[in-house]
Each structure stands twice: as structure tokens, then as C-alpha cells.
Amino acid sequence: MQADRIIAVRTNKTVYRDGNLALKVFDEDYSKADVLNEALNQARVEETSLHIPKILEIRMIDGKWAIVSEFIAGKTLARLMEEQPEKQDEYLNLFVDVQLQMHQQSVPLLNKLKDKMNRKISASDLDATTRYDLHTRLEAMPRHTKLCHGDFNPSNIILTDDGTPYILDWSHATQGNASADAARTYLLFHLAGDVKTAEQYLSLFCKKSDTARQYVQKWLPIVAASQSVKGKAHERQFLLSWIQVVDYE
């Protein structure tokens, strides 16, 4: 693998292109269990009707775990939005349509979103009163079994030359409530400093899915708390600012 073959650099991992293959190489200290769980998630989602890169093998490269999958030629929606700002509305509509198509899928063997969130809230350093309130709020939310991505943002959608959208990066995939997934996407736009697009996205999602905006907003403190556990320092501070959940009666 040569430096000019690098196609993406993420925290603790680098993605390379090798011909028709994409190799996601994890840092040496990256959890083997997390690597295998990501591969298993993606393999299970492959069984749906969604367009996603197929995993071909798991291997070791220079002492590092790597997931080898199909290379999908095209541009991410994030890049297209940057290159063609005049098409922002068109691309954002497509983005929401792909997410709604994903939410129509069912993958029964995936971990449950509520279980994952409960574990993360418990692992946070929030005070006991706030954790209790978050757990209570989470348990009160409806239990669904829709396919949720967990990191659905424009950089994880590749549009091929023929216009087919492929969804990448299934490391956070679960089955659960679609509005929790939407709340996460909304927060991701905010984390990127794009408040305008965040608001446009949420309005589109609620309109297209016939979901009350207030319902998605009820998920925001819960999602922010669960995502704050492993976040970068500045992201963690931002997420914690959304956790104003304690009501005294």
C-alpha cells in the first residue's frame, strides 16, 4: 500500500484502495472484538436490499487488523455538497430518502439500540441523578426494531456515476428507533458547525417520515449522553451541553 492510495483517514483507522478492494486498516491497539463486531454488523446488513460494499475478508496487515471489502467508485455526498452548493437541497433530499429506506429494513440479529444506549449512559461520568433521569427517559421511549446506522452523515454515503447511493461504515449499526438515529444525524451536523443544514435536515426528515419534530427532540439528550462517552474533548463538551434533562417536581 502506497501513501497515494489512502482514500480516507479516520480516528484509529485508515482506508486504502488496492485496485477493486478497499482495506480499512485499524491501529495496532484497536480492539479485535470491535473490528470483528463491525464486520459482523456489515455482513448482516448485506442481507438487506440496501446498497453497501460487500465484505470479502478479514486479515492482518503488518500486525494490524483490516477489513477488506469492495471498493465503490464515486463521490461522497459530503464532497458533492461542497463542490456543488447550488444542489444542496437536492442532495439533502436524497440523503434523507436513503436514510428512510434504511429505516424500513429489519436486521433481527443486530444489537438493540436501547441496550447500547443504556450501557453508555451507565459508563458516562454524569452524576447519578442525571444518569437515572436519562435511563428513565430512555425506557419510556417506544421500542422499535428498525435498522439504525448510528453515524449517518453525508461522508458515509457514496454516489456512484450512475447515481446509486452506497452506505458505508456500519460499525455503530443497531436495531431500534429511527428517530434516535435521526437525532444522532442532527447532532452530527451541529458537531460539524453546520447548524443551517442540521435544521434543514430535521425538517425534511420529519416531513418525509411524518414524525413530530418534538418526538425527535425528545431523543436528543439521550443520544447526546450516550455519544459523549468516547467523544473527543471538544465534541464531548458540546454533547454535554445538550443534556439538560433533570426536571424537579
Model description:
By secondary structure, this protein is α+β, with helices and mostly antiparallel strands. It contains 9 helices and 10 strands. The strands form 3 sheets. A 5-stranded antiparallel sheet has the order 1-2-3-5-4, with helices on one face. A 3-stranded antiparallel sheet has the order 6-8-9. Strand 1 (6-10) and strand 2 form a beta hairpin. Helix 4 crosses helix 8, helix 6 (178-191) runs antiparallel to helix 7 (195-209) and helix 6 (178-191) packs across helix 8 (213-227). The radius of gyration is 18 Å and the shape is globular.
How does the overall form come out from the CA principal axes?
Answer: globular
Q: How many angstroms separate the termini?
A: 61 Å
- Uncertain parts: 245-249
Order of helices and strands: EEEHEEEHHHHEEEEHHHH
Strand order of the largest sheet: 1-2-3-5-4
Determine the number of helices (DSSP H or I, runs of at least 4 residues). Answer: 9
Task: List the quaternary state of the chains.
Answer: single chain
Specify Rg, calculated over alpha carbons: 18 Å
Measured by DSSP, the beta-strand proportion falls in: 15-25%
